[in-house]
Design a protein that fits this description.
127 residues; mainly beta; Thiol Ester Dehydrase, Chain A; 6 strands; 13% helix; globular; PaaI family thioesterase; HotDog_dom_sf
Length: 127
């Protein structure tokens, strides 16, 4: 089997976080496209996961050495579409906040408003 090397780079912004939701924005670049020329599924999941964690952390910044950090125990990703270019928006909202168990739903949409990914994250730990 021939050696295969894969490289990619993502860049996105968290543009808003409040007690109810977090919003991130990302431009689709060639660096996150798969061999078919559409967004690699893992790139969508990572984008949504970081936006969800931004909601969980609120005003806090992630730091090494923190005593207690929320940990995702399940990620349920529904890949509903893809695109080749354009602007994406991820919006994370609370589904549940009960003690140490948190659930967040994050939808990633393209510039036309089509849902590309619907990610449900269950986390345990600090809130």
């Amino acid at each position: 089997m021939a050696e295969r090397i894969f490289r990619g780079q993502m860049e996105f912004d968290i543009v808003g976080v409040n007690e109810h939701e977090a919003v991130g924005e990302m431009e689709v670049t060639e660096a996150i496209l798969n061999g078919f020329g559409t967004i690699q599924a893992g790139a969508l999941v990572w984008f949504a996961d970081v936006v969800a964690m931004s909601l969980v952390l609120g005003d806090e910044q992630p730091q090494e050495g923190r005593d207690n950090f929320p940990v995702a125990v399940t990620l349920n990703a529904q890949l509903l579409g893809s695109c080749r270019d354009g602007h994406l928006v991820a919006r994370a909202r609370w589904m549940m906040q009960e003690g140490d168990v948190l659930a967040v739903r994050t939808k990633v949409r393209d510039a036309e408003g089509r849902v590309l990914l619907d990610l449900t994250s269950t986390l345990v730990g600090a809130h």
